Amino acid sequence: MHLQAPPAPAVNQPKSSPPSSVAAKAIEVNCPACGERTLYSPANAFRPFCSARCQGHDFGAWANEGYRVPTKPSSEEPEP
Ligand SMILES: [Zn+2]
To answer: DSSP per residue over 27-47, as a string?
Structure first.
């Protein structure tokens, strides 16, 4: 009876993925606010916007829209 130790699994895979794979994941999109080409990737915290300014601008416009809605003081509202 001869026990033969199994061969160690060949580890030929690179320890770190090549940067090319990261670049392949990045997608270029147009910023909805300014239309500039921006990177749609986890590295871009403001995606799909290009910057915090554009992201905030869009949100601000949306918020202003809501604030601009003329709210007539309803007389039907029950006063405490
Ligand atoms: Zn932008």
So the answer is: EEEE-TTT--EEEESTT-TTT
From the number of C-beta atoms within 10 Å of its C-beta (0-12, 13-18, 19+), residue 11 rates as exposed
Contact between residue 33 and residue 49 where contact means Cβ atoms under 8 Å apart: yes
Second CATH level (architecture) for the domain 26-63 = 2-Layer Sandwich (3.30)
Residues 12-32 have pLDDT tens digits of: 766 665 555 554 567 899 999
Copy the structure tokens of residue 54. 């554009």
pTM of the full structure: 0.42
Taking a 5 Å cut-off on Cβ, the residues next to ion ligand 1 are 31, 33-34, 36, 50, 54
